[in-house]
Give the backbone structure.
Amino acid sequence: MIFSISGLGKTYKRGEMVFSAAENISFMVDRQDFVCITGESGSGKSTLLNMLTGLLQPDEGFVRFEGRNIAELSDDERARLRNSRIGCIPQGYSLLNNFTVLDNVCLPCCLYNAGRSAYKDAAKKARLILRRMGISHLAAEHPRNLSGGEQRRVAIARGMATDPVLLVADEPTGDLDPKTAAAILGVFGEIHRNGTAIIMVTHEKDHIPFANRHFVMERGQLQEIFPDGTRSSAAPAAEHACISDSFK
Amino acid sequence: MSTFAIAWNNLLHRRFRSLCLALLIMLTAFVIAGGTLFGSSLRNGVRSTADRLGADAMFLPPGAERELEGALLEGKPSTFYLPGDTVRQLSSAKNVKRSSPQLYISTFDSPHCGSLVQIIGYDPKTDFVVAPWLIESVPGGPKTGEIVIGNAIQLEPGEEMLLFDMRYKVAGKLEKTGMGFDVSVFAGMETAYTLIDRYEKYLEAIPMPDKDAASVVVVEIEKGVDHETFARDIRMEYRSVGVILPQAIIGNMMKHLNLTIAVLTGLLIVIWILSAFVLAIVFTVALHERKREFGVFRAFGATRGKLVSILMTESALLSAGGASIGILLLCITVLPFNAFIESSLGSEYLLPSAGVTALILGGCFLLCASVGPVAAVLSAMRISYADTSLIMKEDM
């Protein structure tokens, strides 16, 4: 198990109104999981992802990543954890336009290791990942010269640069044409087959078959949709699940 | 990839903005370093004038104070006398450690004289004011028919100078003093008396009262004696004698100068604050534009500290670059014309020594190089406290 979530909750205030973006969410993700979370805009999907990656602190519950409670880590420790163990693909176009494609992919690797040899190693690895993504010929280009699909591939490559155990992607195919979206999903499939767990948030129902687990987020509540179409009434609390696992 | 490399890349990517900001800091550095150097030169000029005058007190005819100040500080030629017996009495006055008479003779603008200069007759045997400024010593002082010239007079030792239709050999030259001495001609008393005869003949001026008369007696006061008390005692004892205390002249100049420097300093502080303010606004606006960029950095694992260090490095690079260019520009465009500025402003301006100038420029560099990081503090704090998940969302 890579991480478990138990009783996660987050509320926001908008003026006088208080609304719940995440309410009592509990689930676990294993290394072999490719999780697809669907839901309408404003249902709380991005809030959930941000809590998973430690970018946002929950009001209730906890996220345990590889056994460590993220809430108990300092902000710097959470940042270092994201850098080394979690690959993030933010929503929209997230490449840094002032860096080349190669440097964009290298950046997470040499953020805390500024030496020349560290950069060389990172660049070597980045070229390998870009080749795997079929975009090695774009290494010297700047993101503004790339198409939407190419930019998404570079963002995925950057997410993979540090060999994360978990890849978290927020709407990775948003505003892409179906053909390009399918190609991107193919890349995710390959990453998953190579042993990286994936959590992908999407609007598109067509993408669900690419994943092996499907969750729906509705008004801050998360439900798993099983292959037979049934829904979990309330996802089992991770802590309980852990206890039951240990009894097995 | 180091923080420096990331910051440098960011600056290069926004070339126009970086250039404009560096230009602003460059101008700030130019004005602040130039202004500080100007103020220091003024202060230095006045201070060193006091040292250069060499005497603790000067006795002269009453009412001739302004003429003497003009001759000493600005090199305005003038002629005035103190009777010979008064000169003798003053030399042996109470608390006078040593004294030396000087005779001031003005040339005039005519073909009879090479140029309009102040001639100062002095007694090389008793002199302690002129000799220290000689570039090469003239043993026993200039002989009869010889002169020593100030540094700004365009003649060299061995050449001759026309004074009242007579040619006088230049025996020596003074170091640069930055005051009236630079455009004065010095002669022994014998030569000075022949010159004054000619002066009186050409100008039909009132003759010198007696053969031993002088214009000024320069005095070194005994140690421990209060200069003001000494001057008051002399004025009371010798009713027909005026006393100038060079320190008092300097004190007055310093008083005016301090006011000027205070205003100048105030203006420089305002300029620095304005620059910091403009930079702070630009950084804040830029931060708004760059929220997503910083959000992305956070997403792939940059700590808040890393973001702050990127931002601070960017601002420090901009400031250091702008400040270096501004100070370099000052060195290239202003310092070579220092001689011209000195001659235009007279004794009140003297560039400090190379070491002090370098220190001033170094200090100004640090001050101007700090303007960027100071201005970026607010933006850095906002980054530190910003909720990354929200700023990523805001930018959608």
